[in-house]
Design goal:
There is one protein chain. By secondary structure, this protein is of the alpha+beta class. The chain has three helices and four strands, in the order H-E-E-H-E-H-E.
């Protein structure tokens, strides 16, 4: 009798274990189904956002191309691709180019294209851009000068603020008011940004 009772208790314990496993399996399946549903909902939301912003992305690419063409003479093209992996900037000049100078140029041109997109009201960005020493060593002086000329050409067409901090001098006619706002030095302290040692 005790043996049967022990066997019954053992079987009851196994049945409870099986019941817990079935409940756990059901929970995993339910979570998996709701996780899959949530994933599908998120993908749908992302698709809608991409469709809604498709025109702005296309316009950003057009502006990037226009800026690249302004800064580099000759047969050159630029494009912007935004996907789930991030932002890809491409420059082609008889084939895709990727050098230190081109990579620097891409960043500067993208910043200006984004500024212009904001000026047009097609981006939720301020119409303000601060470039801290945009001239990399590999970015030629002629392109750097064209950057200043291009920005100057936009002055009468749009309202924006563009500030450049640089150790490389801009074109000589832009080294005065109203373009040159401050000349700073590392020393003495009164020639620094805040007029003192920080």
């Amino acid at each position: 009798m005790f043996g049967a009772s022990r066997e019954g208790d053992r079987l009851l314990g196994k049945a409870k274990e099986l019941e817990a496993l079935v409940a756990e399996r059901t929970e995993v399946i339910t979570e998996g189904t709701s996780g899959k549903k949530l994933h599908e909902e998120r993908e749908g939301q992302i698709r809608l956002i991409r469709q809604k912003n498709e025109g702005a992305v296309r316009r950003l690419s057009q502006l990037f191309d226009a800026v690249i063409r302004e800064l580099v003479p000759g047969e050159i093209e630029g494009s912007v691709l935004i996907d789930g992996k991030g932002i890809t900037l491409k420059v082609s000049q008889g084939g895709e180019r990727s050098t230190a100078a081109i990579d620097s140029l891409k960043v500067v041109a993208f910043d200006i294209a984004a500024l212009l997109l904001a000026v047009e009201g097609a981006a939720h960005l301020p119409t303000f851009l601060l470039h801290d020493s945009p001239r990399e060593a590999d970015l030629g002086q002629s392109i750097y000068d064209r950057l200043f000329r291009f920005i100057q050409s936009l002055e009468n067409k749009a309202y924006f603020q563009y500030i450049v901090t640089t150790t490389t001098e801009p074109p000589s006619d832009l080294r005065r008011e109203p373009w040159l706002r401050a000349t700073l030095r590392g020393g003495p302290a009164q020639d620094r940004l805040m007029g003192c040692d920080l």
